[in-house]
From TrEMBL:
<protein>
    <submittedName>
        <fullName>Glutathione S-transferase</fullName>
    </submittedName>
</protein>
<dbReference type="InterPro" id="IPR040079">
    <property type="entry name" value="Glutathione_S-Trfase"/>
</dbReference>
<dbReference type="InterPro" id="IPR036249">
    <property type="entry name" value="Thioredoxin-like_sf"/>
</dbReference>
<feature type="domain" description="GST C-terminal">
    <location>
        <begin position="108"/>
        <end position="232"/>
    </location>
</feature>
<dbReference type="InterPro" id="IPR036282">
    <property type="entry name" value="Glutathione-S-Trfase_C_sf"/>
</dbReference>
<dbReference type="GO" id="GO:0016740">
    <property type="term" value="F:transferase activity"/>
</dbReference>
<dbReference type="InterPro" id="IPR004045">
    <property type="entry name" value="Glutathione_S-Trfase_N"/>
</dbReference>
<dbReference type="Pfam" id="PF13410">
    <property type="entry name" value="GST_C_2"/>
</dbReference>
<dbReference type="Pfam" id="PF02798">
    <property type="entry name" value="GST_N"/>
</dbReference>
<feature type="domain" description="GST N-terminal">
    <location>
        <begin position="18"/>
        <end position="105"/>
    </location>
</feature>
<keyword id="KW-0808">Transferase</keyword>
<dbReference type="InterPro" id="IPR010987">
    <property type="entry name" value="Glutathione-S-Trfase_C-like"/>
</dbReference>
């Protein structure tokens, strides 16, 4: 691939600014991770609205970039060696952007490792568990009469909130300084309100976590990134 026009995705989502990072996304918790990171890091980018419909995420054009048919994904026209780099999976993209910009990933090897630890905590725990909780309480699974799936994910969400609450004791951010771990984690905490389960999981019983999300949402770059690309 010598330039962006060689990638099949550009036939459907054509770049107007091919010299910028191309973001293919939708404002879900995983999607806004990347737009917020790009805003925080000051990296020039162009956002393309890829809805969650099969017509978009299962199209040949999008599958050419992400065979797992999930948003977000990016193409960096100025990747390693000056070559375009396509990339999917929100955690991998966050790490790549942090390393590219030299921001929000710690100042030494130990801090970097701990930031990645909390990033993996979100990717492997908070995201999947909160997502399943949303499915069984607000989305397609809410009609299932068996209470066991809901009970499982309610209990797991409460447990994970307890882990976060404990970690935030004496800290403004999950690893002390603001990092990509916060950009990964906070949008999923925000999703509990969208799913209508804050009371169910005892949100108010976690005051440090409540204040943490408020701090996150007050950041100008977060406010800018939360609506990228616009839903409408």
């Amino acid at each position: 691939m010598t330039d962006l026009t060689d990638h099949p995705i550009t036939r459907r989502w054509a770049p107007r600014h091919p010299d910028r990072i191309q973001l293919y996304s939708f404002p879900t918790p995983n999607g806004v991770k990347i737009s917020i990171a790009l805003e925080e890091m000051g990296l020039p980018y162009e956002a393309h609205r890829v809805t969650l419909s099969d017509a978009d995420v299962k199209s040949d054009a999008f599958l050419s970039l992400n065979p797992n048919n999930k948003i977000p994904a990016i193409i960096d026209p100025d990747g390693p060696g000056g070559e375009p780099l396509p990339l999917f999976e929100s955690g991998a993209i966050l790490v790549y952007l942090a390393e590219k910009s030299g921001q929000l990933i710690g100042t030494d090897a130990a801090e970097r490792a701990q930031i990645l630890q909390w990033l993996m905590f979100q990717m492997g725990g908070v995201g999947p568990m909160f997502g399943q909780l949303g499915y069984f309480t607000k989305l397609g699974g809410k009609e299932i009469e068996d209470p066991r799936p809901r009970t499982r994910y309610i209990n797991e969400a409460r447990r994970l909130l307890g882990v976060i609450e404990k970690q935030l004791d004496g800290r403004d951010w999950i690893m002390g300084d603001y990092s990509i771990a916060d950009i990964a984690l906070a949008p999923w905490l925000r999703a509990l309100d969208f799913y209508g389960v804050r009371d169910t999981v005892g949100w108010a019983e976690h005051p440090r976590t409540v204040a943490y999300l408020d701090r996150f949402l007050a950041r100008p770059a977060v406010q800018a990134g939360l609506n990228v690309p616009p839903r409408d």
